[in-house]
Amino acid sequence: MEPTVMPRLIATDLDGTLLRSDLSISPFTRRVLRGLEDRAIHVVFVTARPPRWMAPLAEAAGGHGRAICMNGACVYEFATGQSSHVFGFTHDQVAALVTDLRAVLPGIAFASERPSGAVFDPSFVSSHPVGPETLIQPVETAHDDVVGKLLARMPGMPDSQFFDIVDEVVAERALLAYSGASGLAEMTAPGVTKAAALERFALSHGIEAREVWAFGDMPNDIPMLRWAGRGIAVGNAHPEVLNAADAITGSNDDDGLAHEIVRGLGPLLDL
């Protein structure tokens, strides 16, 4: 896809890509995103974040903004605060995975992210604030919602060893993704990825892959970057992402995404 061809959809990861290290969005990047919306170019956030972390980004998303959350498990509508197109684990699938992992890794702690909120094992330690809506109970005892993402931590075990064991135990029953959080194994149901969800969204709006630009920084973004007509890595991206991308722009702290859009589309967007 030539940089001067107007895309119909811009898809971007959030943490480490669109958001700066302090989790802010600069005025310049906000202005560029508004310019895209004003010209009816879809902007879709594609993130590992759960729906419960999305509301503070409503202004940047625009009036009709959407986010693909939990590594592709659902679509979040900023205007309504509701989730749709939910794909995840059944309760029986979660129970089987948790039982098998607890047997192999005594001391493992789980959390589950659902459209309605999170469930944390009593021993699960989160690096983010835990709101009053979070249920504290063994994750396999929560039956009331689809689990979009199953999380696991194993204190005291090196990441590489932990991820290898989890991958071997879950096998074909789950997809193990890495979005940059140290010591955190993130699992989605088979077939649930950022790329698959983005493709569904694009096709539902009559948009082809060649009409999509996608931005990312972590290995869980690679399938999305490869599917899009133009896959762009920010300068601070993981080495595997830098190698997989069609182009490399500036870092998240240097507004790389916004500068890449202006470089390629500025004259067309009057930016």
3D architecture notes:
With 271 residues, the chain is α/β, with parallel strands linked by helices. It has two domains: 155 residues, Rossmann fold; 98 residues, Hypothetical Protein, Haloacid Dehalogenase-like Hydrolase, Chain: A, domain 2, CATH 3.30.1240. 29% of the residues lie in helices and 20% in strands. The protein is built from eight helices and 14 strands. The strands form two sheets. The protein has an eight-stranded mixed beta sheet. The model has no long low-confidence stretch (mean pLDDT 91).
Residues in helix, %:
25-40%
The CATH top-level class label of the largest domain: Alpha Beta
Percent of residues in beta strands: 15-25%
List low-pLDDT spans.
none
Main sheet strand line-up: 5-4-3-2-1-12-13-14
Largest sheet properties: 8 strands, mixed
By DSSP, the count of extended strands is 14
Name the helix and strand elements from N-terminus to C-terminus, one letter apiece. Answer: EHEHEEEHEEEEHEEHEHEHEH
What attributes does this structure have?
271 residues, alpha/beta, Rossmann fold, Hypothetical Protein, Haloacid Dehalogenase-like Hydrolase, Chain: A, domain 2, eight-stranded mixed β-sheet, 8 helices
Question: TL;DR?
Answer:
It comes from Populibacterium corticicola. The protein contains 8 helices and 14 strands.
